[in-house]
């Protein structure tokens, strides 16, 4: 691993060489299965036998360690693949064997990432078929969801770096900076069709003939941008292919199975007919003939065509036709022969306009093998939040929850099961979630709108006009705030402090620990005349075996002093208060007694507390896990206008660097950002003129 350096004021430098140790917050209770099979057996065995061999296990149990079993499953076909183009030399039978090898390889690697494996495993055959038919990187394949891309990364020789996901390592999302096989940077969802359409139009204007394929799943397709893109694609009539990877997940678990698209021999035959050149040419000829006869005949024929295809296709298939996309499907996403057949026909057609291929995959096919193998031994902030919210909801029947984002935190299931009629999961429809919450508030309810920080960015216009401007009492719960470890810059919550605290009517607050979080839930429930938001990070709480108490509302705009000291005051916001306390401990060993204060609120700011800190200290250091323009900027605005900067106080902010911090462990990211207790303490030492001690502290 390489090293990187980030400079900080006052001669302090953070250098990261990959040696930072992070505290483990999980206990490994079991490991994936491994088996030794001779290389010859892979080619002599049938696909079913091959899969059966790979599923035989020698279970390895290594609690509390990151080491994996020394045995290595042999993957002869996969090992022979240097580039995706080599797939074209394989037979369909060998592709099936390769799918089994990739599935085993992913199982042996992805357990270290603590991520759900099912979406990746379900998309293996689809990924193979796409690379088998198309010529990447000449042809462009855009992946919408991170969870679908791991087989793609395996085929492009990047899978060995997936478990670490460290700084300067592999990205958790597709990235053009990482590989020529990644046609566009994705990860936050629903942008593949828009970007793909842009690539298709640019291709046409430059006279090129490459294919463009956008792969989207039935979670990210719930976002409005996907439909805006499909509507525009239908209008422009540009040649592009949209793959809807339907893994049968629904936001409504009680939805009847009968309403889902199903795979049968008839549907397989019809998909092949629909995609065939003969059928498409016949359909095009019929359109041309009816146009010549007259507009009335053309419109009548179009209605007959739509009705007939709607009768054959699954429920909702005509929606894509109305948007201007030619619908093909459903296709069995685990049948490589059918996938290759359909995709070959679609790829061979010129001037076909946008096509949507509906592919059905089953995530639970590998549920037993891919079930979670890590067990948390620490409670998370999300756990405490949900328990506190349940307590408030039991007292107040008007409290409801609206959740939006790519995936729901498992802890929210507790609230969903306890109050099923008061829980609304809208998926990746953040704009709708915000305005829906505003409507609930107007109707006399108390909505808690739960959205991860990075996804709340999508709905900022609705936050401004539908909530803040109208002073609607919506309670925004901003999860995954700050740095997010292996999810890197795509889901990093760096900007919410700045963009939420800039709104005139918004109360913005952040808890320093789980006790404060519980109290802020009660505070948010108590506020009924304007919007309020609070943020909390991913990860474990400060205390172990924490029992959630009854929450007590906090006085709006009132911070608190945690430790009294002199000369230097640390004013922390949110989770960074803990790092300020760590810095206090380090400085105490050097004979320095500094003040540590918990701001609690960014807006309204506790101006009395800030004024006292400035009057009683020589230096004020604000610390936040957010970008420039956030909490520190509000403090600076006040002390400048109040004339405090004209006196003896010197103010220094510590914020996230003005850039994107890539994937790494949480501790490594904090070190790169200069937000550890050591960095905060070193900043104080440098201000006091004790530069040598500051450098020693950082060495």
UniProtKB/TrEMBL annotation:
Reactions it catalyzes: D-glyceraldehyde 3-phosphate + pyruvate + H(+) = 1-deoxy-D-xylulose 5-phosphate + CO2
GO terms assigned for molecular function: 1-deoxy-D-xylulose-5-phosphate synthase activity; metal ion binding
Claim: RNA-binding is one of the keywords in the record: no
Alphabetized SUPFAM superfamilies for the sequence: Thiamin diphosphate-binding fold (THDP-binding), TK C-terminal domain-like
Highest taxon in the source lineage: Eukaryota
Cofactor: thiamine diphosphate; Mg(2+)
Keyword Transferase: yes
Domain Transketolase-like pyrimidine-binding intervals: 379-544
Single GO biological process annotation from the record: isopentenyl diphosphate biosynthetic process, methylerythritol 4-phosphate pathway
Pathway the protein acts in: Metabolic intermediate biosynthesis; 1-deoxy-D-xylulose 5-phosphate biosynthesis; 1-deoxy-D-xylulose 5-phosphate from D-glyceraldehyde 3-phosphate and pyruvate: step 1/1
Matching Pfam families: DXP_synthase_N, Transket_pyr, Transketolase_C
Keywords: Isoprene biosynthesis, Magnesium, Metal-binding, Thiamine biosynthesis, Thiamine pyrophosphate, Transferase
Entry-linked InterPro entries: Dxylulose-5-P_synthase, THDP-binding, Transketo_C/PFOR_II, Transketolase-like_Pyr-bd, Transketolase_C
Enzyme Commission code(s) on record: 2.2.1.7
Complex formation: Homodimer.
UniProt family annotation: Belongs to the transketolase family. DXPS subfamily.
Protein name: 1-deoxy-D-xylulose-5-phosphate synthase
Provenance organism: Arabis alpina (Alpine rock-cress)
